[in-house]
Structure formats: C-alpha cells, structure tokens
Amino acid sequence: MAGAMRDLFRDHAEFRIGAVLVAFVLLLSALASFSPYPPESVYVVPPDVPPSLAYWFGTTSRGQDVFWELSAALRNTLLFGAIVAMISRVLALLVGLLSGYKGGWVDRALMSVNDTFIVIPLLPLLVLFYFVMRDRMSWPALALIMACFGWAYDARLIRSVAMSLKAREFTQTSLFSGMSTCEILVQEHLPHVMPVVFSTAMNNMVWSIGLEVTLAVLGFTDINRPTIGGMIYWANQHAAMVAGVWWWIVFPVAAVTMMFIGLFLLAVTANAYIDPRSRFQSIGGNF
What does pTM read for this prediction? Predict the structure, then answer.
C-alpha cells in the first residue's frame, strides 16, 4: 500500500493536487481544537460583520465567527465521512472477499443480499428514518445507518478482485500448505485489494459527505451540531444572500467544494492505478 501511494504521488499530478487540497482542508479542520469559542455557542461575536483582520471570514447573523465555525464544521463533516467510509469498508471487505473466494452458494447468497442493498433508494429511506426517529436521529446514528447502506457497490468490486486472486498460483500454494480460509483472505488477498479499498473509501467519503450536506441543508439532521450542511442551513434560514451576508455561504461552499475535488482526484487516480490492464502493462506482466 505504501508503495502504491508513493507511485501515485510521483507519477500523477492529479493525485498531488488532490493530496494538497485534502491536506489544506485537514489543516483547517485541525484548527478547530484551538478555537476561542465553543463550536455550538451563538452570539459570542458581533453579528453580520464582513471579512476583516479581526474576523477573517466575517461573522454570521447568529453571532458566530465564520472562520472558527467553518473549522469545526469541516472537522465534524470529515469525521462523519471517515466513520461512514471505515465501517462500510469493513462490510465491503467481509462480503467481497468471502464471496469472491468461496464461490458457489455462499457467493449467490451474499450477492443476493448485496444486490438488495444496491437497489434500495437511500435518500427517501433516510428521510423516513428522520421522521420516525425525530430527535433520536443523532449524528452517530446517521453515520451508522449510512454505513450499513454504503458498502454494496464496493463489495462487488472487491469480489471481482478476489475472484481473480482465487485463481492465482500463490492462492493454490497457500491452500495446499494448510492455511485456513481466514488466513488466506487476510494474509494473501487483503494486501492486493488495499488499493481498491483506498479508492472506494475516497468515493464513499464524497458520497456520504454529499448526502449528509443535503440532509442537513433540508433540516433532516442535528442542525445544532456544526457541519458544512448545518452552516448552509442556518444561512438559508437567515436569508444570508438576500441580507448581503454572502460570506456565510461562500466560504462553507468553497471549503466543501475543495474537499470534494480533492477526494475526487485521489479516487480517480487510484482507480487508474488499480486498473488491471494498466497495472499489467506497467509492471511487465506480473501483478
């Protein structure tokens, strides 16, 4: 995995640009730990102050410093996406590796469940969950629900890689040497699918963050917890653009756009790297 990252950074300008954008967003989110204001507090600074030396990104109509509020919102939004991606990667790995290696009725059963999750319309389902749970739809609950529905597409991709690995000579050697199924999947197959896991994790973060922002803008999440979607929600509630408080929307939108572009570039270059044909040609015919 470290070698793949090194090759991507050295050979792909898009990967370097994406890494710089994501690093900038991560740095801005890390500054939330040094905020002089509690992230959920309101009316701690004068409202509707435009960007200045005192308030770099201006202040909101709720009396919040946009710079520090944006820093906390980015941290929570990135953490949300990372949690969803991590949980869903574990589910995708379990289903994809096991289905691709075992085959037969195990593969058919797992893929039947997988295909069921693929066809479920998630946005209406999340809105339904919100109306059913109401105040109980917390930030961790939303992340868990999205993770449970965000693994199916990637499990199919991992399954296809596992099916090709199953026919490789090293897999047969491991099997004849007495290794168990779990040992083969973890020690032999898992390292080969890690680039796929990285690529799909970036895509999953873009998907989950985009969906969380959409739900927050519509008011279907915990809007009192600072997130990018929550900032845009409150800006819309206070008619920020009509009132001339443009910075309340512009800076969050610019930050989340930068985040999306960075993650997208990382995912696209990783997809190009793990493409079997390009990999086969670049390393002389050996995976």
Answer: 0.83
